[in-house]
Amino acid sequence: MSTINNAKSSDESISFKAHREAEALNDKEMIPILIELINSSITSENKISRREAYFILSKLLLKHMDQEALQFLINQLNLEKDKFVISTLLDRISDLEKPESTDLDPIFQHTQHRNWLIRRSAINSLKRSRNPRAREVILDNILTNKEDIKKNKYDIIYAVSTLSYIGIYDDLALLEELSRSNIRDIKESSIFAIESINKSQ
What we know:
By secondary structure, this protein is an all-alpha fold.
């Protein structure tokens, strides 16, 4: 048992080190190389390699904004089939600034996905979006889900969290209503969103 645990610990250490090294990369010339790598493997079953390539590409885009590469990442959502690859790709996209001109339709479609993991990652990925429609999608999500607030509480919490980034003064009334919820997490996330929006105005 000890040997198994040691092997697992070693694998995790290697993975952690690889991720830290990927985060340290700073060569923007790697962006087109990674895109070519992803394109060449999209029809294969090598999901792990693509997932790692998405990770590295997203870290490079944090340092070297490239609208075309950002749009490439978003468009990949329509090509990937594995729920874990899609979810982690959405999580990478959430960290990136998305200018107003960015086509977010692939993300919008996934905010309605039947799989909760993909759906909530999609909601979360609209943070840092400058496209006004992103806010409208999040508001529609909250208004629809609050009809059965207990059943949909986690989707609401994710949406409120995203609204704390992209919300405006007009959204405060809805958030104030949610801040009176008996569900603690909804109440607390709504109060935080109200504070965040007020600071940004």
